[in-house]
Amino acid sequence: MPNPFTQSARAGHANASVRDLSAGLLVSLLVGLTACGGGSSEPSSPATPTPTAPTPTIPPVPRATHGDLRGASLGVGAHLNGAVPFPADNAWNTDISNAPTDPNSDTLIASIGLTRGLHPDFGAGLYEGAPIGIPYTVVDSSQPRVAIEFTDYGDESNPGPYPVPADAPIEGQKADGSAFGGDRHVLVIDRDANRLYEIGNAYLQNDGHWRASGGAVFHLDSNTVRPGGQPGWTSADAAGLPIFPGLVRYDEAASGSIRHALRFTVSSTRRAYVPPATHWASSNTSAHLPPMGMRVRLKAGFAIPAGFSTESKAILQSMKTYGMLVADNGSNWFVSGAPDARWNNERLLQELGSVKGADFEVVRMDGLVTP
Questions:
Q1: pTM for this predicted structure
Q2: Burial class (CB in 10 A: 0-12, 13-18, 19+), 252
């Protein structure tokens, strides 16, 4: 079944998702804590010794609170303060480091690219005039709900109204206000209700309601993640998955611990899906291609370099422990994340880019759905 999000991904990902974050084009920000040395190098007076600069400490990792977003901060790109969408035993939060490897792993990884490195599809600053990544906003119960007009897949969408602010950030939105295309995702978390609202190809209308190709509502406090959803339904993601839970976010990465699976894109997928995905977005039935929802993990034998940044080490460790899910059609090995001014684009590109497709394997696919 044609999918507006897939069509957007092929055209929009060519613009929004298929970014080549060149260090020469992007402003690199120095991120993280700088280790301080001891006291002053000048001799100190016996009567009034020179104070010694305290050694900076890394903030403690917030205690994980699964399935309860009520402690999250409010606003665009808000800190979740340790909250993790969905219960601890949800597929997004399951430790798969010791799960069996799929017997067709080598072929599937080769189809994505053995020598191509990971690419962070998120960062600091602007690329082609827009923030780099998929933005999100956190609201509370006071946020007014507005009507959502579905233009394409209303029969596969959860009906509105949704609590989407008029100024909610849109993926690909130009900083100068000029026209833009792409996937135009809008992600809103209602922290009080533990609900996630996602729409794609989203356009705000003059009367305050939104027009979108389709939308989905996810229950972040339940393993019945989308009540009313059906097998074969799409969402704002081609795979029928929620987008937000799989994003790399700075607040988690900087803490040194990401406690969930990530999402990534591949250029060619199979007409099939594996749970937790619910939708395919391809006409190709080759068993050599990945289905939507396929999970890969960084091989156990891969040694994460000690010299990598805290953020890169956290990202790679999450790929070992929880893996990454194929969520959309786009560029191979592009890892999705949220924009944040604190990302160090240059280090992300260098460090993640050094990790190649050959360093990954496919987790055994159980419950594969085919035509």
A1: 0.84
A2: buried
